Amino acid sequence: MNRVFKIRIFAGRAMNGILLFFVLPALLLTTACVKDVTPSDSITTATLTTTSDGLANAVNGAYALLKDHVTFAGSTDENNMYLRQYFECSDFASDDIVCGQTTTDPLYYSFSLGHTATQTNMRYFWYISYKIINDANTVIEAAEKISNPDVSTRQLLGECYFLRAFAHFNLVRFFALPYTTSPSGTGVILRTSSMDPAIKARSTVQEVYQSVIGDAEKGASLMNAARGVGYASKEAAWSLLSRVFLYEENNDSTIYYSNQVINSGKFSLTTAATFPSLFANAMSGTETIFCVAFTSAEDYGKFGSIASMVYSNGNSGWGEEYASPSLRDTMSAHPEDIRWSYIVPDTVGGVIQKKNGIEMYYISKFSNQGGSPTLSSPIMFRLAEMYLNRAEAEAKAGQIAEALNDVDMIRTNRGLSASLYNGQIPSGQTALDVVLKERRIELAFEGHRSFDVYRNKRSMNRTYWGYHLLGLKESDIDLSVLPSGYANMIITPDNPKIIYYIPIDEIETNSLCTQNN
Amino acid sequence: MLVSLHISLWAFSQTSISLSVRKQPLSAVLTLIEQKSDYRFLYRETSAFSRKEISLKVENASLDYVLSLILEGTDLGYTINENHLIMIGEKEEVTVLPADWITGVVKNERGDPLPNVSVLIKGTTRGTQTDERGRFSIEVAEGDSLQFSYIGFEPQSVKAGHGSALAIILRSVNQQINEVVVVGYSDKKRSELTSAITVISAEKLKDVTTNDIGSMLQGKVAGLQVVNSSGAPGAAAEIRLRGVSSVNASQSPLIVVDGIIGGNYDPNDVETITVLKDAGATAMYGSQANAGVIIITTKKAAAGKTSFEAKITTGFRTPDFGKMKMMSGSQLYEHQKEYYRDYIPGDTGNSYKVDLLQFINERPRSLRTQNYDWLSDMFKRAPMTNFYFSASGRTEKSDYYLGLTYYDEKGTFLNTDYQRINLRANSTHHFTPGISLSNNINVSGTTGKSYDYNDVYYAYLNMPWDNPYDSVGKPVYVDGNSTFKWWSRDKVNPIHTIANSNHPYKNFDANYDLDFNAAITSWLSFSSTNRGAASYFKGTTYYSPLVAGTYSGTGYLDEESTLNYGYISNDLLKFNLSSGEHRISGLAGVAFEGSHTELMGASGKGLPVGLQVLSVVSNTQAVSGSNDASIIQSYISQLNYSFRDRYFLSGSYRVDGSSAFPSGHRYASFPSVSAAWLASRESFLAGSHTINNLKFRLSYGVTGTQDIGSSRYLGLYSLSSQYNSTVAAEPSQLASPDLTWESKYQWNAGIDIGLFRRIDLTVDLYNNITKKLLLQVSQPLSVGFEQRWENTGQIVNNGIEIGLSTANILTRDFSWKTDFNISFNTNKLRQFPATNINTQSTWSISQIYREKGNLYEFYMPKWLGVDPQTGAPLWEQITKDAQGKVIYREATSNYDSATYQEVGSPLPKFQGGITNTFRYKRLSLSVNAYFLYGNKVFSNSLRFVENDGTEPYYNQAVLPKGYKIWTKPGDIATEPSPQNATNSTQTSSRYLKDGSFISIRNVALIYELPSAFLKRIGVNGVTVGISADNVYTFTKFFGQDPQTTITPGTYVMPGVSDFKYPNNRQYLFNVAFRF
Fold it and tell me: Looking at the predicted structure, is the pLDDT value of residue A10 above 50?
């Protein structure tokens, strides 16, 4: 009996120890509570907007949204970038760029006019535009609560007004018919407060323009501590105003704001010697008013860069779209024009290469920053546009001599000193024809051409071989003649496909938002 | 040790027994039987006789039946000699009788004699069998043991003695009523179960050899949908239980390993799998059990002495390309003539003839013989090997199990593979009979090589006219500057890319479980189960500077690593009380769970040829890193009540708090109640030969979901971007301050029927309503956000599940058994917000979520075929009046005016499996089939390989029978004219196919070597087997494979089949030794 008892005591002690070992933590756990888990790479909106660092970061975010591949519809797709869609969906719909290959990428609809409300590129563009606007609104609302803001806070605030104006203006260009067609036509949804109800109707084109002008003017007045051409500035806001008023055909205001920029003394036109290196060095270019800064970390390569569709060194890109025969014909009279330097023929032994029967003239305005074929800091505003905006307004206002002078100013700096207009309009042309031709060549591939054609109520002529011709087979191509019998070769300004459909996502969730015809 | 010989000497001639006892020890019951009959008992008075509490009521039952009831659940057996002397002892050592001829009778538990039972003297080939009245006689020697075996019954061994008659009771293996089932935080006898539970024993899992338990379960559990959507080495199957009941939360059932949520294990170490289907069982797991629970129990020591098992499996796999056959060089040549038809839509002078002159001019005749099969060059037969070794044993104080597995699978696709080594050591030390401590450890290491989607894509799409190899057989380099003719659309040779790139990954994972069980009193015990787990994963993407494409000349290296660690502790008090015919048991306690994830990655370009580490990248360096954590705290309780072992009631209540929600919305409770009536134990059915099991079950309960990631309720700016090399904050999430749990309310009614001891039928009906769905509600994009997390909407799943097991033929030499299951599920959405569309970014394929709609319903224009007059594609255009009523439907060739409509869901209408097992003597054959019906699959690859000439430089699929290309006016065709195919490859129901299939999942043939020979070489048993997996799939599906992912993800939409790593056929040989 004794022995058994002893053993029990021994076992009991050991067990008590083990029991304690388990029961104590168990009791501790019952009293422990569920803590907040805060994200490691994000910060709450409330926290962010109450610090000056936070506001600066949020403004940076609005710029970053122009270049980032933001997750959309469940995936982070390298095709999706605000600027990529901005350039593709404007210029691929123009007569400056020809399509060398059909593709399942929705960029093809800009060539084929097979627009849909579900095409991802424009859905993404719409989404990011409004994300930039939301970001700007958040900063504006936070910054306006600060009493006596310092100059740098006012600069940030001004940049947000600029970015909101810029984003709204680009939206109304892509998704609404030109102001010149009908100012009272349906524009886009205006978002100027983060408190707005989510369900909201589209404003008229005129209302959007008014809001854009108001924001840009306010931005210009607030921005007095310039941060370099990678950020918005007073002059960038004036440049935007110059462009907006040009689209409105408000000639006086266009001339006024062009002058504001030209006379600011901060910029000078590149010359025949320096122009070829402008786009690879936009951040330091004398002509750059505002560009979106890309660093080598944002060299997105073959899948994600802007250059990938229009340029390739053989490997760097898809290189499926080229400078069009129409543009090259327009430039053909002047092989000395330095602007040819951004059109790069793909030749083997001096023979131009073809893709599926289409001659391959690569476009290099989005290449060669730091030597990379897929990197550039795309220029959104530059001085040459201000001269050309002014020239167009002057031409429309009947100030022919001034208009031709401005055109000559550009030509002088592009290696065409020997071929100036010197106040003489070539026979059979108007001053506006001269200006628009110069504008086409100077600003080619920079996202202007389609808008320039349609806002002037002109037709787009795409009567050349390319895969914008529906049903085209390589075997059909005969470069010695022009194509005939295909649909959509001439696109008139009343064609509903000169603009894009409102994204299906908006239509399905915003009952007040109407679709384009 | 107290030993008492208890001999009773009464002798009556009564043979049937009536008894009524409550909570009596075994010895008392035996005394009672002795008093009422002429039997006497002989036994050693061990603890089992004094402790066992027996409640029993029988009327005129046979002695055998009574004994089988009172000894149930013990290790005790008995023999009866001619003098009605009954010896009770451990089964192996019952009776010591004098050697000579002995006679006896073999009966089943009900006392029916069993004919044709094999009676063998152990270790010899000498034996006999019973006659039609179950009798036998055999000559035995001193020390011999007799082995009784009969198909469908558990074999039994008895030591033989002289001059005695043996009465042997064989227990039916069909009779699993006493089997212990692991449910929730406790074990229950099968007879006590009150909820819908399926148990799959190791026996039923061993036909399929895989590294993934999901593949093993395919077709074996009613209500369980298992999809093998990828054939990549090491890929895991996707599992759905009772349909899909959530939109955003994980739909994979919760895996519980050895009683603890989560955990790592090797399929070879699995003893049983229990699938908990209704809330009666799953509510115990509360917040994480919305998608059902799969409980994995790993092997523990089985027998007293040390035993070893070794299993070697080896064989190979071949890719299964399904019904999408790519064209050969000559087929493509003929096909491309269609692109040269003289037809300009709208023109008048069309001849509709192929312009052969121009065709041959552009497509030289030599192409017909240029016939490079990219698929067979890039997909090869691949070997796989699995080694498994285990040792287990038990001593008085401790038991242990050690399992070691090495799994090596080469991929069928170039440069892909998977190896895994897994070690599991389970050990339990019993300090006293009531106090034990278990240490379970599982360590695994994995290495493998993944692949790049683009390489698979090009394997299908590159043209057979391009030769991937140069004249000396090396992969040829192609890029945009190559001057030789390369027909394929993109200037890429994927074989060259693969030879100069690598996608290796490594994973290390360790789990340590420490379990402590202590009996505090005879009715109260404490149990603490704890796990610490850590894993580290590293994945690398490497492209040498030699590859063509974006990294040409620079190379690229990206390394991502993930560290996960966490811990779980469950601390429970359990009690077990009984009084007469009432029994009450239950538990209460706390659980705490914390997990952490740390991600880190870096990449860069500019690699020196031959080197692949991050230190040598020279430009475009990028880094990333982030952390995440989640904490769940729970209070658990359960109460079980049973009366007369016939009426069962069980209730549980759990409260969970999760860090996924804002404070104030963190805690939710998950109650459940379930009841069962085991009618077959009622006196009116007891002893019935027709109905051997009849049980009715009913349960109701609630489970929840919080598994959407942390901080979904906060309004956030993401700081992971930069602008001009400084921090950039982008708006990333709208605030949703009231976000809280999604909960699933579940009803289940079930019936289990056993007939003739041959047929087991289980039928369950369920109604599951998921409320307060954690939904990413689409916002107008113009607010700058795609969606906002909200608790809104409901999903209703209704279904019926039928499981049927039959023993069709049972004879001594031959048996045939069938396991069949089928389940039907319907799915409806309700109380949904405004129309909510989810569209896959890349291909604009959309699925709609709307009031009264189905989950994952495809939403796209309906394809109406080809216009016989123009050869143009046709879609349906619906015109509606202001009230939304359809006015008329017409066909249009203008894609933009086609009407979006609902065209079907990828969720099946019904699905199931059937397994037939045949056994002839030592040879057994099992055939397992899996079927799925009524699901729609969007075959996205067809957009490329059935593209009507819109992409003439992609290879095309051979058109199936019945498909025809339009060539001239009047043609009734399925394929538009290549000359008039605008938008024909746009998303529409053209590529939406019926995904129904029946697949011969597995065929396994196993032979068990005769034991007599093996004994002499010291081996207990050897089985050899051959098996074949994914033997054949019967389907009308046109596309790569109807088994398509059902998990939403990045680039992935449920039910959309894209180019993927094809599934495999697998042919294996295996041999297993037990010694």
Answer: no
Range A445-471 average pLDDT: 96
Confidence of residue A8 (pLDDT cuts 50, 70, 90): very low
How do residues B551-601 score in pLDDT, each as one tens digit? 888 899 999 999 999 999 999 999 999 888 899 999 999 999 999 999 999
Which residue on chain B is closest to A485 by alpha carbon?
B347
Q: Over 70: is that where the pLDDT of B92 sits? A: no
* Secondary structure (3-state) at A386: helix
| CB-based contact B957:B327 (threshold 8 Å) | yes
- Residue B122, token pair as written in the block: 């152990």
Residues of B in contact with A74 (CB under 8 A): 838, 840-841, 1048-1053
| B339: chain A residues, CB-CB within 8 Å | 473, 475
Separation of alpha carbons A175 and B119, rounded Å: 89
Q: For helices A120-143 and A52-67, give the axis angle rounded to 10 degrees.
A: 160
pLDDT confidence bin for B14, thresholds 50/70/90:
very low
- Taking CA–CA distances from A194, the nearest residue in chain B reads B783
Q: Return the structure tokens found at B777.
A: 């509600």
How far, in Å, CA of B138 to CA of B158, rounded? 13
CB contact under 8 A, A22 and B571: yes
Pick from B344, B626, B728: CB nearest A57: B728
H helices, E strands: number in chain B: 13, 58
Closest CA to A117 of B584, B986, B470, B871: B986
Smallest CA–CA separation between B269 and chain A, in Å?
28
Q: How far apart are CA B68 and CA B15, in angstroms?
A: 15
Say yes or no: B594 contacts chain A, CB-CB below 8 A. Answer: no
Assembly ipTM: 0.92
A227 touches chain B (CB under 8 A): no
CB contact under 8 A, B727 and A57: yes
Q: Verify whether the Cβ–Cβ distance B553 to A504 is below 8 Å.
A: no
* C-alpha dihedral sign at B599, B605, B608, B610: positive
Q: Is the pLDDT of residue A128 over 70?
A: yes
Q: Among B20, B17, B52, which Cα is nearest to B34's?
A: B17
Q: Collapsing DSSP states into helix, strand and coil, what is residue A26? A: helix
Contacts of B826 (CB under 8 A, 6+ apart): B797, B798, B799, B909
Q: What span, in angstroms and rounded, lies between the C-alpha atoms of B741 and B890?
A: 46
Percentage of chain B beyond pLDDT 90 is 51
Which bin fits B904, alpha (ψ -120 to 50), beta or left (φ > 0)? left
Confidence of residue A133 (pLDDT cuts 50, 70, 90): very high
- In angstroms, rounded to a whole number, what is the distance separating the alpha carbons of residues B413 and A235? 58
Interface contacts A/B by beta carbons within 8 Å? 326
B-contacting residues in A 102-131 (Cβ below 8 Å): 102-104, 106, 112, 114-116, 118-120, 123-124, 126-127, 130-131
Q: Which of B533, B663, B669, B529 lies closest to B589 in space, CA to CA?
A: B529
**Chain-chain contact of A61 with B723 (C-beta, under 8 angstroms):** yes
Interface test with B, best of A1, A9, A28, A40 (most B CBs within 10 A): A40
Distance CA A351, CA A341 (A): 18
Pairing mode of beta strands A321-323, A347-348: unpaired
Q: Compare CB distances from B719 to A37, A43, A103 and report the shortest one's residue.
A: A43
Cα B244 from Cα B254, distance rounded (Å): 14
Nearest chain B residue to A513, by CA: B780
Query: Which stretches within B346-419 are classed as H helix?
Result: 356-362, 374-378
A333 CA to chain B: closest CA distance, Å? 30
CA distance B359 to B362: 5
CB-CB under 8 Å, B895 with A114: yes
The dihedral region occupied by A295, where left means phi > 0, alpha psi between -120 and 50, and beta the remainder, is: beta
